[in-house]
Structure formats: structure tokens, C-alpha cells
Amino acid sequence: QVQLEESGGGLVQPGGSLRLSCAASGNIGSFHAMGWYRQAPGKQRELVARLTSGGSADYADSVKGRFTISRENAKLTVSLQMNSLKVEDTAVYFCMYKRGWGPGQPDYWGHGTQVTVSS
After folding, report:
1. What is the pLDDT along the chain (119 residues), one digit of tens a residue?
2. d(CA 119, CA 117)
3. Could you give the CA distance from residue 17 to residue 45 in angstroms, rounded to a whole number?
4. pLDDT of residue 3
């Protein structure tokens, strides 16, 4: 089992910044990926960014150049720095953990944290 504890999120104006963090604990494998998905009302959950334990990062096209994912290996924490936020970034953001580096659905999810971008 893997437990994911999220922090961050909240309300911000368009153009502002927020930082999300996710701490993993439990049975953490050497080869894994962590990152963030998001789900807006009425829409499917979508990948925002993920980072493998080998250092390879993937981003959704809609956030490239604005969001940056990083990790602190000692703390098994992954962070998502979100800059130049747009109204369309409003969603519940879910931390994820996946065994291995390949594609596919995550094995574990966090509870989600709300991000609202509004003036």
C-alpha cells in the first residue's frame, strides 16, 4: 500500500501562482512515477504532470511552460509549481503514484485538493 498526502491548493486570481505538494509513504518502489491529475466539473480526469523516479517528466500540452513538477527524494515528496494560472485550470487536483515508469493508469490516488482560479 502507498499513502499520498496532498497539501496546497486554494483560490487565486488569473495570472497568479500556487504550489501543490504530495508526500508519499508506505511501500514505495525504486521504479515509480508520481504526479498530478485534475478533474474539472463535467470533464474527465486528465494528466497534468508526472515525474518518474528516474527523472523523466511529462506535461499536458495545456500546462507546458507554466507548470513545473519537481521532487525531493529524501522526503518522497513531489511538488507542482503552477504559474500564470488561468480560469480553465480550475479543477480538483489529485496526486498519483504508479508502479514502474511505463504508461498507464496510476495505482494509488490522493484525496484531491481544489484549485480555483477566479477574479
Report:
1. 999 999 999 999 999 999 999 999 999 988 999 999 999 999 999 999 999 999 999 999 999 999 999 998 777 899 999 999 999 999 999 999 999 998 889 999 999 999 999 99
2. 7
3. 22
4. 96
Side-chain half-sphere CA neighbours of 36 within 13 A:
36
Residue type for position 82: M
User: DSSP labels for the chain?
Assistant: -EEEEEE--EEE-TT--EEEEEEEEES--SSEEEEEEEE-TTS--EEEEEEETTS-EEE-TTTTTTEEEEEEGGGTEEEEEE-S--GGG-EEEEEEEEESSSSS--SEE---EEEEE--
Nearest to 21 by CA among 11, 29, 39, 9: 9
- The vertex-98 CA angle with 95 and 101, nearest 5°, equals 125
